[in-house]
Give the backbone structure.
Amino acid sequence: MLVWGRNAQRVQALADTLEHQGLKAKPAADLTDALSVADIVSCATTSREPLIVGQHLRPGTHLDLVGAFTPEMRDTDDDAVCRSRRVRRYYAGAPKKAGDLLQPIAGGRWDASMICGDLHELTNGLKSGRLSQQEITLFKSVGAAIEDLAAAYLLT
């Protein structure tokens, strides 16, 4: 597992924590290099500028986007979204909150009707996930307060 972030000390601390928990983790010095070998890319940022550039994603990559939860924020550029098969946690949040999706819509490069399903449909077999091994897939979550509350309750 590669860990990348803007702050090298925090990246090292996270990699050390993951190693301590039994996961093979090491810091990635360069995000572009890390993207070129990644099977799964998970982002949880509050960035207003795209960090994940679509042209750097290799075929078969899965993007897990749980940050960028306002229209002004984004983890990915338009190309990453346009190259991906997209699944949402739920339909209602996508058109209102997700900057990763709203900004390509505003630029005329993408349309919300291209969402291929939500998490419920995917996990219950009502909709298909990946259609080929070469397909880039994207899961976009803008969060749900009830899930955050449940997680906090379980941790206390």
